[in-house]
């Protein structure tokens, strides 16, 4: 099959989750409903945090940013899949594919950094309560968020610049429902050694280091909780419970994808597993934070009461 440089290549073929035509309407309805629930749920979190003065704290500032990132994250992949199902097409242009890789990596990386920043915020609140308001100033909070975006912008940009040097066969098929970087590396017909090395370095920066920061923060929190009374332990842990659930879900799905891909070497099983962190995790986060958090539930109740009184 003829190979073409990325700049001359016009399109790829996304094979999606299934090629069974009878399953396409089911997949369309399922993913459309999951996408709408995810967007509306995270928008509600942002609205609740921004409209209630009780939630104008660093923890909820980071939570609202996390919700915004999750909306962008799922919007990078699912809408294109829905359009392809509806149009009965598998095409995605080379430029669209590059954009998907860039934004998917950026939003996914910012997600990991925000989870780490939220763990650091809980560490400061529980282990250093007297200095919390001084250290976690609005300026520092904004700086931490902006730094996360800046790091991932450059990491993703380098990925794209390296990808543009790759060549692919005409009509390259990607056994996925979006342009996922590792699948593109497998499909490339040119040498991918440099990009693979950078991918490993980026994984350490974006996955391993943030996870290490989260584990260090919570190890210090556990030591501090052991010195508190039972009432203090419950109150402190209640502020960490939702975040721990989200962290476990996020990194658990990533670990599951890695184990499934290494154990089975099946692109189909890897594709199905990736649905967990691209779709299922963002849809569950609003429910975890709203159902397990008394402050969010209280703010949501006040927001609904105001809406009802206005109507």
UniProtKB/TrEMBL annotation:
A single GO cellular-component term on record: plasma membrane
The portions of this protein that span the membrane are 26-48, 60-78, 98-120, 140-162, 193-215, 236-259, 271-288
> What membrane topology does the UniProt entry give?
Multi-pass membrane protein
- Which cellular compartments is it found in? Cell membrane
CDD domains to which the protein is assigned, alphabetical? 7tmA_OR7-like
Q: Which UniProt keywords apply?
A: Cell membrane, G-protein coupled receptor, Membrane, Olfaction, Receptor, Sensory transduction, Transducer, Transmembrane, Transmembrane helix
* Top-rank lineage group of the source organism: Eukaryota
Record-linked PROSITE patterns: G_PROTEIN_RECEP_F1_1, G_PROTEIN_RECEP_F1_2
User: Where is it mostly found?
Assistant: membrane
Q: Which residues form the G-protein coupled receptors family 1 profile domain?
A: 41-289
Q: Which InterPro entries match?
A: GPCR_Rhodpsn (IPR000276), GPCR_Rhodpsn_7TM (IPR017452), Olfact_rcpt (IPR000725)
Q: Does the keyword Glycoprotein apply?
A: no
Q: Name one GO molecular function term.
A: olfactory receptor activity
Pfam families assigned:
7tm_4
Q: Which PANTHER family match?
A: OLFACTORY RECEPTOR
Q: What protein family does this chain belong to?
A: Belongs to the G-protein coupled receptor 1 family.
Protein name per UniProt: Olfactory receptor
């Amino acid at each position: 099959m003829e190979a073409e440089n990325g700049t001359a290549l016009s399109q790829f073929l996304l094979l999606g989750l299934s090629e069974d035509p009878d399953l396409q309407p089911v997949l369309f309805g399922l993913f459309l409903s999951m996408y709408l629930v995810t967007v509306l749920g995270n928008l509600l979190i942002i609205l609740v945090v921004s409209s209630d003065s009780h939630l104008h704290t660093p923890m909820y500032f980071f939570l609202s940013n996390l919700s915004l990132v999750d909306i962008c994250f799922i919007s990078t992949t699912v809408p294109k899949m829905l359009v392809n199902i509806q149009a009965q097409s598998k095409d995605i242009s080379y430029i669209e594919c590059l954009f998907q890789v860039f934004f998917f990596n950026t939003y996914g990386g910012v997600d990991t950094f925000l989870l780490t920043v939220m763990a650091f915020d809980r560490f400061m609140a529980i282990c250093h309560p007297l200095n919390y308001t001084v250290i976690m100033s609005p300026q520092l909070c904004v700086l931490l968020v902006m730094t996360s975006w800046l790091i991932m912008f450059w990491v993703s940009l380098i990925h794209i610049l390296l990808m543009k040097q790759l060549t692919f066969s005409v009509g390259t098929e990607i056994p996925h429902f979006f342009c996922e970087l590792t699948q593109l590396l497998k499909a490339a017909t040119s040498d991918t050694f440099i990009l693979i090395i950078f991918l490993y370095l980026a994984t350490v920066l974006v996955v391993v280091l943030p996870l290490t920061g989260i584990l260090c923060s919570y190890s210090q929190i556990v030591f501090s909780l052991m010195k508190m009374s039972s009432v203090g332990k419950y109150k402190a842990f209640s502020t960490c419970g939702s975040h721990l659930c989200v962290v476990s879900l996020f990194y658990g799905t990533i670990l599951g994808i890695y184990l499934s891909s290494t154990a089975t070497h099946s692109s189909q099983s890897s594709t199905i597993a990736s649905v967990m962190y691209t779709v299922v995790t963002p849809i569950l986060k609003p429910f975890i934070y709203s159902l397990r958090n008394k402050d969010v539930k209280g703010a949501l109740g006040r927001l609904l009461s105001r809406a009802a009184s206005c109507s």
